[in-house]
Amino acid sequence: MKILNLYAGIGGNRKLWGDDHEITAIENVPEIAKIYQDFFPKDKVIIADAHKYLLEHYKEFDFIWSSPPCPSHSRLRKNFSCKVGAKPVYPDMKLYEEILLLQGYFKGKYVVENVVSWYEPLIKPFEIQRHYFWSNFYINDGDFKKDTINLTGGRNELQENQVKRLQHKHQFDLSKYKIDKRLVLRNCVNPELGLHILQEALREHKSLF
Questions:
Q1: Residue 113, Cβ neighbours under 10 Å: how many?
Q2: How remote is the C-alpha of 77 from its chain's centroid?
Q3: Strand pairing of 22-26 and 44-46?
Q4: What digits encode the pLDDT tens for the residues 116-141?
Q5: Rounded distance between C-alpha atoms, residue 6 and residue 108, angstroms
Q6: What is the pLDDT of residues 89-110, one digit of tens each?
Q7: In the chain, which stretches have pLDDT less than 70?
Q8: Between the CA of residue 177 and those of 8, 28, 35, what are the distances in Å?
Q9: Is-contact 115 130, C-beta < 8 A?
Q10: Distance, CA of 144 to CA of 190 (rounded, Å)
Q11: Collapsing DSSP states into helix, strand and coil, what is residue 111?
Q12: What residues does 109 pair with on adjacent strands?
């Protein structure tokens, strides 16, 4: 199956997909794209604007996973703005542009992932852990437990512990990379959840043939 993995990051959602599929990953930050390529050398990695790439290439794939940027939709960002007086931002509607594009034009299976939003979602999603998923196939919740990392200690210790626990949880060793490890790891979808959703899509994809 030909898979398009948009806003790929370091590949949390893709980690357990194996190498039986032809996977194209789109990531616009070169340093992050390099890490993804290191972990998944058989994937085709393209440094590009994922939103633009989707519009131009969606017809070429059987399954599309998209994880557009989430900060403008998140409860954390909204609550932070209200508490400290940070400047409000418009929710990034590229999220819904992609959902509607795929819903209206794409013939394969798709899933669009984002955080649970501070507002009532404009299109009803599936909700699993701390994520919303919009798709054209049924996603069983799989009895996944709430996705949390419980930490104690001071600020520096807190971040260091969180990086260690997230690396262990997602089974990514980022020790040799000079990046914001905490941010990158927190943006990862649980690999087991990523595999579960791909299997749900494959089940429905195979039923069509």
A1: 25
A2: 18
A3: parallel
A4: 999 999 999 999 988 999 999 999 98
A5: 15
A6: 899 999 999 999 999 999 999 9
A7: 77-85, 145-159, 205-209
A8: 17, 17, 8
A9: yes
A10: 10
A11: strand
A12: 63
Q: Tell the residue number behind the tokens 């996973």, with chain if given.
A: 65
Structure tokens at 115: 């955080």
Q: What is the CATH number that goes with domain 2-145+189-207?
A: 3.40.50.150
Please check whether residue 92 is in contact with residue 73, taking contact to mean a CB–CB distance below 8 angstroms. yes
N residues, the chain? 209
Q: Report helix angle 50-57 to 94-105, nearest 10.
A: 10
In whole angstroms, how large is the CA radius of gyration of the chain? 17
**Residue-range domain boundaries for the chain:** 2-145+189-207
DSSP string, 48-92: S-HHHHHHHHGGG-SEEEE----GGGBHHHHHHHHHH-PPP----
* Count of C-beta atoms within a 10 Å radius of residue 149: 12
Q: What CA–CA distance (Å, rounded) separates 172 from 44?
A: 20
**Eight-state DSSP code of residue 190:** P
